[in-house]
Amino acid sequence: VSSRKRKHEDDKDEDSGLGSYSGGGSGGGVATSSTTTIHRMPSECESAASGGGGAAGGSVRIPGSPNSLSDHEYLDATSDPGSGSQSPIVSINPDQLEIRHHKPLSYRSIVTDVFDGKLVSSLKCLSCDRVSKTTETFQDLSLSIPTQEALSSLSERPGSLLADGSDGWISWMWKWFSSWFYGPDVTLQDCLAFFFSEDELKGDNMYSCEKCKKLRNGLKYSKVTQLPDTLCIHLKRFRHDFAFSSKISTKVTFPLTGLDLGPWVHKDCVSDQVLYDLIGVICHHGTAGGGHYTSYSYNSTNGNWYHFDDSIVSEVDPSTVANAEAYVLFYRKNGSHLDDVRKEVALALRETNQSLVKYFITWPWWVKFNDMSEPGQIDNSSVVCRHGGVLPRRINSAHNLCLPITPSAWRILHERFGNSAGALTNFKPCKTCIHAVRMEERQKQFERAEFQLLREQELASQEESSGDTFLVVRSWYTAWEEWVMGRAREPPGPINNRNLYTQRGNSYLLRPNVDRLTFNEDIWTFFLSLYSGGPEVVVRPGSGGIKVSTPRLVRIQSIAARLQARCRETMRLSECSNHTNQE
Predict the structure, then answer these.
(1) CA distance 524 to 536
(2) What is the pTM of this model?
(3) In this predicted model, which residue has the larger pLDDT, 544 or 535?
(4) What's the pLDDT tens digit per position in 352-392?
(5) CA-CA distances (angstroms) from residue 157 to 125, 193, 236, 323, 418?
(6) Which of 150, 498, 504, 571 is in Cβ range 3.0-4.6 Å of 146 for a Cys bridge?
């Protein structure tokens, strides 16, 4: 187990105890935040589909449209604006195909709303003073329990937040005496200070400086840029050394109220509230080889603490909780500053004055307002699209997903929290989004029919053909098939075939046990012209070897023109059919 106090960018898989630490960077491969792909629909079809307020960039699928994954249960997926330069992998005449910038999805749920926080890790080179920063998302802070030697060393550093030991000789004697019976006295603030302290990288732990182009000594330190509503703190009580495991039974004292994270927040932190109150504790009884879990939970309704031991529940005194050997601690932001606003809104909801305009608030944001310390701006996006109309899939359920409120209640909420999208006063469907849904369905039908035609041609000429075969990783094809068959809401990103092969010198070898499909050149170019990506992995007949190369532009242009012609003909036949039915 590494002796470093926190995770570095290159060891995201280090055990965090609860396994919920996620980095901010994207994985390797083709589908990155700056990946650009060719639009899935030929341009003539798109121009017909984009008629009143289409998506930016000519895209049929628009962020915040019915194709997003948000609903009243907080199960959302929204497009992250992303950053960095966006240049297409393949340059194609815009008159033939539209260029579409793929952006990573940021999945959101009630769990992320409650537990997600962000911190920025800074890495400073001691040679050139260059500072690189990485933003990471966390759902728990996994804290090591520092030794007395580590705390003494940390307290000697300039600007240390630890006690300087100037409490007097009587206090020092008591701590020294009690440590013989109860172990060293470590506080939760000590663990936090140790976690957020500067970590010197030297010796075998030197890092590669991008400016110096060499291994250099450095300093790493972290600050919180966004505090979660509920903070989960995991204390590392288990040590694993080679084949031996042991439990750290050091007593860690923790406050029941008023845990202050202010000393460790970044100057640009978006969270205003930094005080937390304890709401739950998980304890482990036993050794590293086995044991039993119990918990304490705070009931905010009656203000009492309860102990849970399997099916046995009993009320306990707060002092019992404070003396527990904690393994996991749950702290919740102090939301008392909103009590007056909540009371004012509750009184406003009782008003009986009639109004010609009805106001509505979606239940997800209403729950945040009542239960969270910082609910943020009024958000009705689980029902309303970015155009201000009701999402097509919410037309029949919008009334059940919203709470009617009085005009005075809306005024109070709007003045306190704001709302960039305006008030929700009706449930009028969004015509733009309805049109986008219809065009996306036509998009799926087009891709499905084109693939089936190309596949039939491939199977018919399979006995005669002795040409190259093109490989596609099955996971990407499955994602595409799920989308065109209507079983998935999101289309696949760019093709990523990098896991299909390994490179040894100038030659390439297929990876064993990687599931893949083989297609002819027409089908491969069909996928490539719509989704971009790569690389092109070709199996040579007879030789058994593979060739890896960049997709060929001329072939893509050729099949793109053919797709446009077929799409044009399909639309013409569809219009003729509709005209005939109307007559």
Answers:
(1) 9
(2) 0.67
(3) 535
(4) 877 888 899 999 999 999 999 999 899 998 899 988 899 99
(5) 19, 12, 24, 30, 44
(6) 150
Alpha helix positions (H), 128-206 = 148-155, 169-182, 188-196
The tokens of 440 are what? 């996306």
pLDDT in tens, 76-100: 333 333 333 332 333 333 333 333 3
Provide, for the chain, the percentages of residues in helix, strand and coil under a 3-state DSSP scheme, each rounded to the nearest 5: 30, 30, 40
Separation CA 469–CA 59 (nearest Å): 31
From CA 272, how far away is CA 330, in angstroms rounded? 19
Provide the pairing of β-strand 186-187 with 252-253. parallel
CA 4 to chain centre: 26
> Alpha-carbon torsion 272, 276, 279, 285, what sign?
positive
Structure token pair of residue 192? 């936090």
Taking CA 393 as the corner, what is the angle to CA 387 and CA 399, rounded to the nearest 5 degrees? 85
Element (H, E) at 452: helix 431-460
**Neighbouring C-beta atoms of residue 506, cutoff 10 Å:** 5
**Where would I find the H helices in 38-136?**
43-49, 110-115
Distance CA 533, CA 530 (A): 10
Q: What confidence category does residue 75 fall into, taking pLDDT thresholds of 50, 70 and 90?
A: very low
Q: Tell me the torsion sign for CA atoms 488, 489, 490, 491.
A: positive
The Cα–Cα gap between 12 and 5 comes to 13
Rounded CA-CA distance 385/383 in Å is 7
Nearest to 76 by CA among 107, 102, 104, 103: 107
